[in-house]
Amino acid sequence: MAPSSTLTRPAPQALASTLEALAARFGNQLITSQAVREQHAHTTTWLAPQPPDAVVMAQSTEDIQDVVRICARNGVPVIPFGTGTSLEGQVNAPAGGVCIDLREMNRIIAVHSDDLDCVIEPGVTRKALNEYLRDQGLFFPIDPGADASIGGMASTRASGTNAVRYGTMRDNILALKVVRADGEIITTGTRAKKSSAGYDLTHLFVGAEGTLGIISELTIKLRGIPQTIAAAACSFDTVQGACNATIMAIQTGIPVARIELLNAAQVKACNAYSKLSLPETPLLLLEFHGSDAEVAEQSQAFGEIAKECGGGAFEWTSRPEDRTRLWQARHDAYWAVRGLRPGAQAVATDVCVPISRLAECVVETEKDMETLGLISPIVGHVGDGNFHCSLLCDVNDPEEMERAEGFLHRLVERAQAMDGTCTGEHGIGQGKQKYLVNELGPEAVEMMRTLKRAIDPQNILNPGKILPA
Amino acid sequence: MAPSSTLTRPAPQALASTLEALAARFGNQLITSQAVREQHAHTTTWLAPQPPDAVVMAQSTEDIQDVVRICARNGVPVIPFGTGTSLEGQVNAPAGGVCIDLREMNRIIAVHSDDLDCVIEPGVTRKALNEYLRDQGLFFPIDPGADASIGGMASTRASGTNAVRYGTMRDNILALKVVRADGEIITTGTRAKKSSAGYDLTHLFVGAEGTLGIISELTIKLRGIPQTIAAAACSFDTVQGACNATIMAIQTGIPVARIELLNAAQVKACNAYSKLSLPETPLLLLEFHGSDAEVAEQSQAFGEIAKECGGGAFEWTSRPEDRTRLWQARHDAYWAVRGLRPGAQAVATDVCVPISRLAECVVETEKDMETLGLISPIVGHVGDGNFHCSLLCDVNDPEEMERAEGFLHRLVERAQAMDGTCTGEHGIGQGKQKYLVNELGPEAVEMMRTLKRAIDPQNILNPGKILPA
User: Fold this and answer.
1) In CATH, what is the architecture of B228-333?
2) What CATH number has the domain spanning A108-224?
3) What is the pLDDT of residue B4?
């Protein structure tokens, strides 16, 4: 799908003099080869790639500032790039421009273990950070699946499996340094754990997808690695039973670290792919963090709830090798899905609804897929009411893509009608702009436009994202 | 102290025609008596009162919209008012204008117990809400001490004793309805527990002190009332010892619900006031929430940490009457302080620093007070690095007030030099505007001004707050 856009490319002369100035300043940090430009648009999204005109490999905040200043002079777009694992076209360059690749800004500047925070550059990936922190008994809990850059995760307000206990990127950032549209730097906060000093600039940039400024440094919260981790699994006859058990667990305050739903189709795919013999009905997988006694108590408490909600055999363990076995289906979920239709592309999407509506939303979505003859098992971060479909499509078959797009559209409408959101964690990018007005109303979207115009009057920061044309 | 301001009052004719239009629309909901106007400026702050020209008792969102529209026509300021318990002059009317009193907008619109959220009007107070929720086994955890309105707590980004476990107002709001400067209504979110759909408008208004819009409805997160609550107390020889114990407790992941520090002067005041016989050294008071087994384990784990950090006798209990006895000193802290100098006014302030710097900050602050001959015991939400001074002052003695202001100034500078903030939970209001630039830099404050100008171009929404003149 080519996203519609009223954006116009900069005039050829403006672009040429920008590239000349960038070449003079950046030497071989500036790359204009077609292969590299295409790499920066061919990402994990199913939306058609739109490569930038050039890529700068930034090494420092000063580099970001200079790219922005040089581009601002000629009204040329600037698109920040982390690892390219976003799913809604966030790194596409619909009006061309200069991509700032931040992966080499991957220094861990300071770890304050007493304060449970650290200061990092935006290109640090979550796995690299957690590897670095392990010896100190600390970890950063946000896990969106991909080994994304933490700057990118902040920009798309990412979350993932651990969010039910540890929150999303929104909840785990203390302060940012951000390069403004005029190249100046803003500091949005301090290392104090809380503050009521003025407008919340930090949260203005978290989830803004690089359209209001480019994050050049993050101060993020860390946690102590739990003494014990336990895993548990339980099959249910119905999605409703699994959701009821989740609701009760959260209401009674069991601090589950992860609680994942696999629908029957997903379990079936996992049985086939990973040679498992799970009952082919909805499955809940859980993880508990705490002391030995705490995880034992939490597991047992959940076991009783599961039983009350019609769950089948309940298994839990804190032995690492058994945990891996129990969670095998979840770990392999992505590849199990891909195995259902080799060669197809995955059209990934997510929605999020109040948890009381989750069962209904999942069941209606399953029916819709069945009617359409589309393949997409469902995996859900069910403690948050958030679930994912990865439709396996032949993107070159217009008829099939039309069916898929109709499905995506109804999925969003269904979630919004249940007081939910068109995206729990993937962001708006290009793919979901058309759903914003229905979700929040024209006045809210108008205010977003007002903010964008005030902060980036030239519209050079990642133009064509979030705000509908 | 009269806050400096370059604000000008509206022209008398503009004000007169505004009041005329308001009288026609609102009848006896409009009050212009001097007594009532003064009540809306005489709040818990020590800053000089600046009454509005009139007060409208709003009953509905439409009322708020109509006040804003009528005032906008003539450029007359609008000041939202909850319970008047803010501490930095947030409800003063430095340029006159119309106060919108929201206390009668106190309906609980919906409680969604399965989703752990509820929808309320801004005038609902936290105690009223918790009383309403109790039968359903739910509670709203933010407790700033005063029985503030939840709209006001959102506007000042309030927090308090429970924040170490449950977060601040920032972390507990799902969505807002806000009346814009032109009277239109914005919806900032849905009831989904997380979303990455566009700019974070919710957090733009949380902590904005009514300067960007007036909150007319809130969707907030609730929690299940814990099965068991345990209290604990432990004296330490030094503030450093108490802080080290706190750091270790948080690092090892003990989910303390409250952890409060009383310095030696505060304990001494409490002994005198409440006839206690606590050792007159720094005291930590804690609360644990969970199952019987959990709170027992948490209490014991903390007891061991306290011992390791040089704590004295450690006492814990989950029996309600014993909990009250253990926490007696904290419950009476405010009145114990007032008892130290009957008739004096309390000049209340707060700062927040990274927890690793807390002991140093408290000790230096104690020395400063001693040198100046000022009286102010210290109470701290020590798990967050946040602490409070309530200087007992004769506000009519200019020399004493000068000393007090010098102290406040150094306290903020000290906290900021330690990478902390000038206010953890009281907000900026009028009293702390002069500290914003030092904390975040001129570029960040410039961006706050850009936001304010874009959203409220006439500067009618609570003018003279947050942004330095």
Assistant:
1) 2-Layer Sandwich (3.30)
2) 3.30.465.10
3) 44
